[in-house]
Amino acid sequence: MTSSAKSGLSSKAKPVISCYIHSDICSAYVEADDGVVIKIVLLKNSPKLNAAAVEKSRDPEEFPLPTLIESFERYFGGAVEEFDFKCDLSGLTELEQRILRVVNQIPYGQTMTYSEVAEKVGNVNLRRVVGRAVGKNRCPIVIPCHRVVGKGGRMTGFSADGGVGLKQELLELESGRHRVM
Description:
Layout: E1 9-10, E2 17-21, E3 27-33, E4 36-43, H1 47-56, H2 66-76, E5 86-88, H3 94-103, E6 112-113, H4 114-121, H5 127-135, E7 148-149, H6 163-175
Helix pairs in contact: 3-4, 3-5, 4-5
């Protein structure tokens, strides 16, 4: 089973409800509407962001995607998780959406380089465009942008709070090298 292989991609949404999911690795602030994930913000080291997210949080009982909460808890618990949620891609160009569709197919526990993603999109010279598109991903983990690495497996760029350190932890979790508490 691979993570995010079935994740749907959508071009519609506006935030209505949110929740905050805690784990030992990081926390996730999630917004959704009508069964579409609008935004996931991964929070590692920022008390200011964490406090703001807690303030905005709503009761998970009211959250429209209760299975998303359960899926994240299993994922952060070290289980291979296949996410099956639609993510809002409005505001992204068609090329950026194509790039995220390719990223969405990277199997759990595996990585691809920016060049490999660019090649799958149809032009190996689009490495930097891939990097920018991955940086615009509003649904990290569901669309597994942390699985895109530099040449030779080098850890490069991760726009989430915690940066490449968090990216490394997520990849270690998926490879079974991260100790889950």
